[in-house]
Amino acid sequence: MTWHTFFAMGGYADYVWSAYGFATVVLLWNIASAVHRRRAVMKMLRELALAEQTPKESAAQHYVH
After folding, report:
1. Are the CB atoms for 8 and 2 separated by under 8 Å?
2. How far does Cα 44 stand from its chain's mean position?
3. 9, 17 in Cβ contact below 8 A?
4. Do residues 7 and 13 make contact, with C-beta atoms less than 8 angstroms apart?
């Protein structure tokens, strides 16, 4: 078996290699979207934590009554 026959995939090279390419793109997209979503959630959690640390005037007025 030569490399040419391996890459030709018995005449089904177009189907096989496009399927591998599509699967690779989907897997990379899945990883990238998970990383992006994690960063967004971590940013939101940091902002919420900072918001809870700073006293709010409305909350202080609520406890005065």
Report:
1. no
2. 16
3. yes
4. yes
pLDDT digits (tens, 9 = 90+) for 11-28: 899 999 999 999 999 999
Please say whether the beta carbons of 16 and 9 come within 8 A. yes
- Residue 52 corresponds to which tokens in the numbers above? 């809870």
At residue 1 the predicted structure's pLDDT band, cuts being 50, 70 and 90, is confident
| Dist CA 39 CA 3 (whole Å) | 43
Q: pLDDT confidence of 30, banded at 50, 70, 90?
A: very high
Sign of CA dihedral 26, 27, 33, 37: positive
Q: Where are the domains of the chain?
A: 11-52
